[in-house]
């Protein structure tokens, strides 16, 4: 049994440990981005007094003539076609709802769904009309900032280590053991309550700690980064991954592997 | 279904984040963070963040204990901690925690109250201990007791002398040297270990998700020598007397290790002296 206490250590700025060549142009709301009026305004900017000013805190991205500011930490904005994972808090009551849905979905359940439409006030409407979506059974939920989930073609990933992961665009990540029979109700509405095997549990706990360490080091989350992080963490016992030094070490290794893969 | 997953995991000694049933999360302890108090400490246990400040003031001793000083506890659950604490929601939890702290410090051996007495029946030191919950991430009682112990360790009470005038009226003189102060001995200050019963086993240091499972928990206050000073049951479930005994034994074991780690870290911090970088709140 382990009990570890330590004195707090000030966080090192990330750019020191990375040795990046190009510095990101970081802005805060109210900062001038440029006084050149030839650019088109993108998200996170507005025009004022002949200058382009940032409205969110983040890094400036420039694509030819379009300038936008990508925020570092935002509330989730829904887009049509996004996958989200969420917990049911309230529901509309109507006669048919009472009869049919109660049997399947209760308040407090976790579901995965796709965004169908976005209203002007920001509310989104979801649908679970495909068998891929539906109630989520046994597994672990990790809540992260939505800006760290990379936009990809698919958000359902089956990792070779034995667990599957759903990366919700709203920042809710669901890790669950890969069901053996894929043709059956993968999703559906009937929850499987049998005990999960110890080996699967270890994989899931390790993945959860890896995701938490990637998030603390502000790295983007997608299937390759999670997988590399998992492999880098294998030599350490699962609970050690939460220690700050080991977390930094693993994430540094993951970052290097990703850079090698790109370059 | 998530609760089922958590419960099954605990039975097999593998919790959601990979810890065993008796493992604590990593703890960050820092003392002397608030400069205008007599002593202060900040403890971070996972997502739980607690700040404790101790102020020493002079006052009259209680009537039934004329030779001793005393401690007053006040717990403030900040609205930032969790959304439930908005407005006056945190008051109930605050009074519950304060009552628990009063009980564990209510016996003679925790803190040497006689050393807080200046002149019997007239003057004594009153230590006002203020606990501020900055963030709530599960396992509040343990973190609070660790922070209180660290803050008391850090408390420096100025040395005073009582002078008799010609007419017989007494005058209190504060020593001029700011470093001339008395320190409290926190050898016997107990720490609380919260054991939560989940399924057939019990876990130490429950996270918020584990606390959402509807079982009961046992708060055991243990001193560094393994002596149990106070015990309390919270929660909705019922506990079998045998499991209470088991949980007590685990509490004693875990408590001893907790105390040794805390003593080590406090001595280490003190030995760093002025070379220590203060991280404070902006690190």
Helix and strand element order of chain A: EHEEEEEEEEHEEEEEEEHHH
What is the arithmetic mean of pLDDT of chain B?
80
Secondary-structure class of chain B:
alpha+beta
Q: Please state the structural category of chain A.
A: alpha+beta
What is the share of helical residues of chain A? 10-25%
Greatest interface: A-B, 41 and 38 residues
Cα(first) to Cα(last) distance of chain B is 39 Å
Beta percentage of chain B is: 25-35%
How far apart, in Å, are the first and last alpha carbons of chain A? 44 Å
Please give the oligomerization state of what you see. heterodimer
Output the radius of gyration of chain A.
21 Å
**The biggest beta sheet of chain B, please?**
6 strands, mixed
Protein name (chain A): Exosome component 2
GO molecular function (chain A): RNA binding
Main location (chain A): nucleus
Pfam family, one (chain A): ECR1_N
């Amino acid at each position: 049994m382990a009990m570890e206490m330590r004195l707090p250590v000030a966080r090192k700025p990330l750019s020191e440990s990375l040795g990046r060549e190009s510095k990101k142009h970081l802005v805060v709301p109210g900062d001038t981005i440029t006084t050149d009026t030839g650019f088109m305004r993108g998200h996170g900017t507005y025009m004022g007094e002949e200058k382009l000013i940032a409205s969110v805190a983040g890094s400036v991205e420039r694509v030819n003539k379009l300038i936008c500011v990508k925020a570092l930490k935002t509330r989730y904005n829904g887009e049509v076609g996004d996958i989200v994972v969420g917990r049911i808090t309230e529901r509309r009551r109507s006669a048919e709802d009472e009869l049919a849905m109660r049997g399947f979905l209760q308040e407090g359940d976790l579901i995965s769904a796709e965004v169908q439409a976005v209203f002007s006030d920001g509310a989104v409407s979801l649908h679970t009309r495909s068998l891929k979506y539906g109630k989520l059974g046994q597994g672990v939920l990790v809540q992260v900032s939505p800006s760290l989930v990379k936009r990809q073609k698919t958000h359902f990933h089956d990792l070779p280590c034995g667990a599957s992961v759903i990366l919700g665009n709203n920042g809710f990540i669901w890790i669950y053991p890969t069901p053996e029979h894929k043709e059956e109700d993968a999703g559906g509405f009937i929850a499987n309550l049998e005990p999960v095997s110890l080996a699967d549990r270890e994989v899931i706990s390790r993945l959860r700690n890896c995701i938490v360490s990637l998030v603390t080091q502000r790295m983007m989350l997608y299937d390759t980064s999670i997988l590399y992080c998992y492999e880098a963490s294998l030599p350490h016992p699962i609970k050690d991954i939460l220690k700050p030094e080991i977390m930094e070490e693993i994430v540094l290794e993951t970052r290097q592997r990703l850079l090698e893969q790109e370059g | 279904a998530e609760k089922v997953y958590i419960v099954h995991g605990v039975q097999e000694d593998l919790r959601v984040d990979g810890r065993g049933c008796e493992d604590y999360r990593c703890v960050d302890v820092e003392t002397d963070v608030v400069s205008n108090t007599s002593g202060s400490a900040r403890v971070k246990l996972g997502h739980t963040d607690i700040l404790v400040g101790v102020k020493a003031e002079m006052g009259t001793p209680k009537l039934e204990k004329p030779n001793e000083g005393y401690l007053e506890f006040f717990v403030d659950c900040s609205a930032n901690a969790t959304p439930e604490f908005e407005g006056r929601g945190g008051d109930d939890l605050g009074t519950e925690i304060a009552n628990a702290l009063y009980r564990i410090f209510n016996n003679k051996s925790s803190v040497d109250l006689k050393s807080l007495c200046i002149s019997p029946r007239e003057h004594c030191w009153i230590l006002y201990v203020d606990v501020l919950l900055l963030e709530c991430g599960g396992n509040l009682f343990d973190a609070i007791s660790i922070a209180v112990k660290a803050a008391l360790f850090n408390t420096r009470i100025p040395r005073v002398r009582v002078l008799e005038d010609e007419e017989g009226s007494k005058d209190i003189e504060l020593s001029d040297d700011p470093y001339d102060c008395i320190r409290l001995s926190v050898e016997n200050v107990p720490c609380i270990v919260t054991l939560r019963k989940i399924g057939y086993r019990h876990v130490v240091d429950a996270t918020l998700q584990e606390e959402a499972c509807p079982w009961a928990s046992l708060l055991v206050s243990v001193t560094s020598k393994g002596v149990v000073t106070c015990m309390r049951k919270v929660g909705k479930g019922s506990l079998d007397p045998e499991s209470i005994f088991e949980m007590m034994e685990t509490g004693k074991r875990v408590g001893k290790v907790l105390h040794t780690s805390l003593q080590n870290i406090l001595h280490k911090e003190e030995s760093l002296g002025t070379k220590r970088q203060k991280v404070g709140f902006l690190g």
